Amino acid sequence: MASILIQRISSKNLEHRSIAVTNLRLPLIFVHLILTSFTLATHLVMSETKSTTKIHSVTDISHTFSFYFDGRFASNYIQPIGGIDARNWATLHKCDLSNINLLILQTESSACPYLSQDIQVVRKFLDGGGGVLILGDHSPFRKENVYPLNEVAKSFGAKFIDHHAKQPLKPTQELEIVDLETYNGKIIDLEDESIWKILIRDAESHIVMAQRPVGKGQVLLASRALAGRQPNAKDPINSGMWQSLLVKLVSGKQIDPTRLPKGTMPENIVNRNELQIQYSDYLEPMSETIFEIYRKSRPFLEQIIGVPPTRGMLKKLILLPTGGGGFSSGVAIGIGVWWGNFPEQRYGMVELLGHEATHSWVLPFAEPMWNEGLATYVGILLGRESGLGKEADTKLENWISKAKRYDPQMKIFDLVNDKEAPHVVKMGKPMWIFEELRKEEPQIISRYFQAKRRMIDPDRQNSYTADDSVAVLSNAVGRNLFDWFLKLNIDVDPSRTKIEFPQ
Fold first, then answer.
1. Which pLDDT value is given to residue 271?
2. Which distant-in-sequence residues (6+ apart) come within 8 Å of 167 by Cβ?
3. What does pTM read for this prediction?
4. What's the CA gap between 341 and 358, in Å, rounded?
5. If both were cysteines, with which of 24, 42, 140, 294 could 240 make a disulfide (CB 3.0 to 4.6 Å apart)?
6. Interval 157-174 mean pLDDT
7. The predicted structure's pLDDT at residue 254
8. What CA–CA distance (Å, rounded) separates 300 from 302?
9. H helices of 366-422, where?
């Protein structure tokens, strides 16, 4: 979990707030997009432009995958003014830009290069009147000093600099901003300022946002810190500014508003028995190694969980250009190719594959109170079975010990209702619970999932609650566990489940 400083800047004061941002591994089908509301004045301005200018955008996530740019940027800034966004997962120069008037490029810490063909496509798009938004903050991959997005920026005579902007930021009058919010971002260097329109500077006159014409179109460079970043899209900062800028940015290209923009999935699709692997050209060198880890891990996963995946689940493996985790949509799992310092270190990738596979494996009913903790626990057990016991044991010990710093006896935080429980508790307490149960039933995970599969009929019920899970777990160990869970301050009640369990 990373804590990021966000500042609200106004003419009267500076207000500092700390926002916690987590690399969530949520299934895409379960993530809800949150639309934002605006001031009356902003709404009136936008309602005028909405009828005359239609935004069709493609957001490139082929260089850095993030949940935020996989739809959340669009939900904050594009959808509220009637625009439609699609995502590009493929090698950039192979994406579909037909009927598009806005291309959004962003790269955080990533090793994916921008190829000469990629830059040519961007230039051609601009020559045709399209608008290009480049959001960046100099974020070299690991210990490298190379920031891939600068390969695009320098083609326009600019680059992102590893120097934090000095507060307060100073927008030009043209932006008509009353309040400007920003995360702790960095600055932009321009070779020739005279060909650019400078829109925002910092307190030391360094550039934070600038725009220039290219061909018939416009390119806008801005600090990544000027837009939201939370995966739940609850931080639509500077929404009025962004919506006004984007409407102007796309004014040079006409699109057919009756045809939807097209997203482009990874262009490489390889079928391996019942598993389909998808990846862009950028990630091709990683594909075979990751598949081999999955292939060798699969029998161990089936042994640990004790049942095969539900029919139709776990059919696709999508490689993601990120070190920030992955996702499960049931049918597909996405795997960040640099997770856990892979490929230099192998353990993290094994655990991640186990984690995301578990999310798909347990469907159609996700685990109600230990969804993430249990998935990671299975990943740790997979690490043990894969010959990485030392790393797995260390990881498990770390999770549990960190949880005990907040909950020494594991009797304080309620896994069902306590939304304020620290993340390490939500992760470590379920692991501790299953480790305690392993003392009397060594195969507790497989026994649990076998009982769940046997006792829960998706044709007869449409939900799976914490009360249900304790009833199923009671069947797995052969005794009533409700009193024990209540002693751990977990809100479960045997009267709220219809599942029979040992008394």
1. 95
2. 7, 9, 14, 182, 202, 203
3. 0.86
4. 22
5. 42
6. 93
7. 93
8. 5
9. 371-385, 389-406
For the ranges 28-37, 172-181, 455-464, the maximum mean pLDDT occurs at: 455-464
| Dist CA 14 CA 8 (whole Å) | 6
What is the average pLDDT value for the chain, to the nearest integer?
89
Tell me: pLDDT of 22 over 90. no
Name the phi and psi angles at 155, rounded to 5: -70, -15
> What gap in Å lies between CA 427 and CA 372, rounded to an integer?
7
- Kindly state the helix (H) or strand (E) to which residue 87 belongs, with its residue range: strand 84-88
Domains of the chain, first to last: 25-249 (3.40.50), 266-363 (1.10.390.10), 400-503 (no CATH)
Dist. CA 256–CA 400, nearest whole Å: 55
Per-residue model confidence as pLDDT tens digits over 270-289? 999 889 999 999 999 999 99
At 52 the pLDDT is 60
Unique residue bearing structure tokens 């966004």: 85
Cβ neighbours for 250, distance < 8 A, ≥ 6 positions apart = 53, 55, 101, 102, 130, 131
Backbone angles phi, psi at 68, to 5 degrees: -65, -45
The count of residues in the chain is: 503
Bridge partners for 251 per DSSP: none
Beta-bridge partner residues of 230: none
